[in-house]
Amino acid sequence: MSNKKQKTQNKTYFIFEKKNYKFMFIGLAVIALGFILMAGGGSDDPNTFNPAIYNFQRIRLAPTLVLLGFAIEVYAILLNPKK
Asked: Which residues cross the membrane (predicted)?
């Protein structure tokens, strides 16, 4: 009888479920997309200024996507899939 108790007590379980991990990967993808959109825009010649570094994509869109990705990550952590 005590052997059965030990087997049930040693059962491991995960804190998160499939739905949580799905939202976590979506959040990571959104964050990665934001950082990819932020990259580039520099000039090959250091003496030449390239105004493309200040375009909408790098100043508004990319940081918004990164913040949205972090919000999705927080939601994924706080999500209770049993409800």
From this structure: 21-41, 61-79
